[in-house]
Design a protein that fits this description.
Number of helices: 11
Distance between the termini: 28 Å
Largest sheet: none
Order of helices and strands: HHHHHHHHHHH
């Protein structure tokens, strides 16, 4: 618990520092004209798309490959697949428990950006800074956005974000919880779900993984969900 608090505090502190630093550059640097500001807009949009895709790949991986006995990822795999049985369990987690782990993952990125100089072009460009800042923010709170989509009474902020498609909406995410839970894996904004489902991205990617490794997607899914479902019924 203390580690989760520390990770959230560190990530949020770095985020605020990076935003203020980039903002001061935009406001005071002589070379930072309107064209530099204009370039930041597609960078921010691209970062949100990448965060959504990253959440989809992670979600797909945990839902599709391995088992509870898989080294390192076993607990994450169990949690991800048991979510299919009890979708609202995650809504009982508080803010720290929900977001601590993802916040930890963003600290290296935000820390590197904090140490980098800022310029108008190249890898140190202010557009790149805004890209990393935005990507880190949406990754850090992906689980929170996912949780919102399952809440019966979301907060006014959550309602606003979901109704305006800034974050994952219940309607968008509902597709994933239909049938075999093998579509619409992106859980940050859900923007990419219709496109990736339309081109059958996940099935084609699974075919490549199977061809290379011989592993079968969701090979033990039914057994795991069956055990989880029985446990849930007994607890009731």
């Amino acid at each position: 618990r203390a580690v989760e608090y520390l990770c959230l505090f560190t990530a949020l502190s770095l985020f605020i520092y990076d935003v203020v630093r980039a903002g001061r550059y935009m406001a005071h640097a002589p070379e930072a004209d309107w064209t530099v500001a204009a370039l930041a807009i597609p960078s921010i949009f691209g970062a949100i798309l990448l965060a959504d895709f990253t959440s989809g790949v992670a979600h797909w991986g945990l839902d599709t490959w391995g088992s509870t006995a898989t080294m390192i990822f076993g607990l994450l795999i169990r949690s991800s697949r048991e979510h299919h049985v009890d979708q609202t369990a995650m809504t009982k987690h508080d803010f720290v428990e929900t977001n601590g782990d993802n916040a930890m993952a963003t600290i290296p990125m935000l820390g590197i950006i904090a140490l980098m100089p800022i310029s108008c072009s190249g890898i140190t460009s202010v557009s790149f800074h805004f890209f990393v800042i935005t990507f880190s923010l949406f990754i850090a709170f992906t689980n929170e956005f996912h949780k919102w989509s399952h809440q019966h009474r979301p907060s006014p902020i959550a309602k606003f974000c979901m109704s305006n498609h800034i974050t994952l909406s219940p309607k968008n995410h509902r597709v994933h919880h239909m049938g075999d839970h093998d579509h619409s894996y992106c859980i940050t904004t859900g923007w990419l779900n219709p496109f990736l489902d339309r081109i059958d991205f996940w099935r084609k990617t699974e075919a490549v993984v199977t061809a290379i490794t011989g592993e079968i997607p969701r090979a033990n899914d039914q057994a795991l969900l069956g055990v989880s479902h029985q446990a849930e019924q007994k607890s009731k």
